[in-house]
Structures are given as structure tokens and as C-alpha cells.
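Duplicate of #3305? Posting structure anyway:
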């Protein structure tokens, strides 16, 4: 008598070959979880878009294009905006300090005080936001901004009033337009907060600069009709989280260059000039922290 092998259904065969329904469900759950972890990391590393690279510092290690962050997408233009907010303080704080000692005009004194207060606040916010977004920031002004400082440093009295007011009013007008564009289009909550703060402070600075009575509005109107020139190269940045407060850098610059006479207002707004070496021991702007491309260029 021949023994028959019990028939196994196709369902039973599949169940044994795959370890049963329980194991199958577990494998599917693991696969979904693995994709959920890997995909965001890959998007962050590679960038979430194909936008062209903007003027960003090279030290932050972020990829080109749009970067996905916990606060929303971060575009190249938005990275440039955060960097330029930082750069504005790097030359406008020294400008505000010179406004206290290079002239006797009380309206220029007042405008300088607004620069000191406004850019101290903006810089604190920019440093915090950059660290949260993984951005490196420069510790030195651009070459163009260094030239602005040299022009101001060489002037005294009424000449200083005109140079100070015209340079700063022109530059504030340019950044004011950039703020509106970023504020309108950004999907990043931190960038939006910085744009809100910058909008309020820049408008305040425009107002007090115009109150000096020496702004040449014809020149500003004529410049606004000209096509934009080539983009100014941004200075190198330092590692993420290592950018120094702009008040320290501006005070160190003043101590080293002698641009602010004894008894002037410090970058911290204390009303007295710190003693030489109090901040950075004579370190000039751009030399307080080693950048990825070497020591920064000093403002002289």
C-alpha cells in the first residue's frame, strides 16, 4: 500500500518560505521605517532642489541648491540674505562709533546711536539663526565695506556728515529692497523672523539718516534707475557657531585703528571707549577667528 504525502496548499508553502504572516508584517514595517530615516538624510545632504549656488561662505559645509531644514527649505538667496545682515553690522557698527567722534552734528550723533543699537540686536539674531541652520558667517566686512570705512575714517566735521549719511542711506536702500523680496517668498520660519526684524530696523535707520539733512536724494534716485552691477564677492566665513559678536569685532577694530577718539561711544553702546586690549587685545575685524582660507583681511 502506497503512502500519500499530505497535500500542502500554496498558502502554507508561502507562509513557510517567508516565515509566516507575523514575520512578513514585521519586515514591511522595518522597510517603511528605514525609508523614513534614509530619505530625509539624503535630501538634506544632497539638497532638495536645483537652484543655482548663491554667494555663500564656504565654511558651513552645506550643499548647494535648496537645503531642507527643520524650519523649512533654505534657498541660496536666503543664505546670502542672512550673510548680508551679518555683513551690514560689521561695517555699520564702526560707522556708528565714528559718528560720535568725527562730527559735532547732533543729528549725526543720533543716527550713529541708532546704528549701534539696531545692528547689535540684528547681529545677535543672525548669529543664533545661522547656528540653527548650520551656516557659517564671516568675521570681516567685504572689500567694498572696508572701503566705506576708510572713506569715513578720513573725513571730519561736515565732510564726515555727508560721507556718512550718503553711504549709509544708499546701502540701506539697497538692502531694504532685498528684505522685501526675501520676506515675501521665504518658506523658512527663521529667515522670515530675521526679515521682519531687519525690515523694522532698516526703515528706522533710513529715517534717522534722512533727518540729518545732508542726504543727496537726487543721487539716490539716479542710482536706483541704473542696472545692478556685478555681485560683490563675500568674504570667507568661519566655522559654524564660531562667528564673534559684531560688537566685539567693531570695538577691536576701533582700538587697533584709532578711528574712534578717546571718550567715544563703544560698539556696546556704553558711552565710553573701552581701553585698548579689552576686547580681542587689538585684534582687527576679520582676524579674531581663523577662517577656512586663512586670516581675514584687516580693516585699516
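Output from current build:
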Amino acid at each position: 500500500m502506497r503512502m500519500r504525502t499530505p497535500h500542502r496548499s500554496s498558502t502554507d508553502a508561502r507562509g513557510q518560505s517567508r516565515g509566516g504572516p507575523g514575520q512578513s508584517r514585521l519586515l514591511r514595517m522595518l522597510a517603511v521605517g528605514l525609508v523614513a530615516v534614509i530619505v530625509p538624510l539624503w535630501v538634506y545632504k544632497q539638497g532638495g532642489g536645483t537652484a543655482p549656488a548663491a554667494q555663500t561662505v564656504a565654511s558651513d559645509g552645506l550643499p548647494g541648491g535648496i537645503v531642507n531644514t527643520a524650519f523649512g527649505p533654505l534657498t541660496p538667496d536666503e543664505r546670502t540674505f542672512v550673510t548680508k545682515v551679518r555683513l551690514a553690522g560689521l561695517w555699520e557698527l564702526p560707522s556708528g562709533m565714528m559718528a560720535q567722534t568725527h562730527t559735532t552734528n547732533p543729528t549725526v550723533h543720533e543716527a550713529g546711536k541708532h546704528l549701534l543699537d539696531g545692528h547689535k540686536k540684528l547681529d545677535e539674531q543672525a548669529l543664533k539663526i545661522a547656528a540653527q541652520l548650520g551656516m557659517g558667517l564671516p568675521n570681516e566686512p567685504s572689500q567694498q565695506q572696508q572701503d566705506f570705512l576708510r572713506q569715513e575714517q578720513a573725513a571730519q566735521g561736515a565732510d564726515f556728515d555727508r560721507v556718512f549719511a550718503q553711504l549709509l542711506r544708499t546701502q540701506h536702500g539697497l538692502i531694504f529692497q532685498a528684505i522685501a523680496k526675501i520676506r515675501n517668498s521665504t518658506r523658512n520660519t527663521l529667515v522670515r523672523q530675521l526679515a521682519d526684524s531687519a525690515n523694522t530696523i532698516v526703515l528706522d535707520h533710513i529715517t534717522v539718516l534722512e533727518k540729518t539733512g545732508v542726504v543727496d536724494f537726487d543721487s539716490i534716485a539716479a542710482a536706483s534707475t541704473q542696472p545692478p552691477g556685478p555681485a560683490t564677492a563675500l568674504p570667507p566665513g568661519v566655522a559654524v557657531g564660531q562667528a564673534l559678536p559684531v560688537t566685539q569685532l567693531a570695538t577691536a577694530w576701533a582700538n587697533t585703528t584709532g578711528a574712534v577718539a578717546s571718550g567715544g561711544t563703544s560698539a556696546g553702546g556704553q558711552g565710553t571707549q573701552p581701553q585698548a586690549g579689552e576686547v580681542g587685545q587689538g585684534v582687527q575685524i576679520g582676524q579674531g577667528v581663523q577662517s577656512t582660507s586663512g586670516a581675514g583681511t584687516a580693516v585699516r
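Confirmed duplicate; merging threads. The mean pLDDT is 76. DSSP finds nine helices and two strands in the chain.
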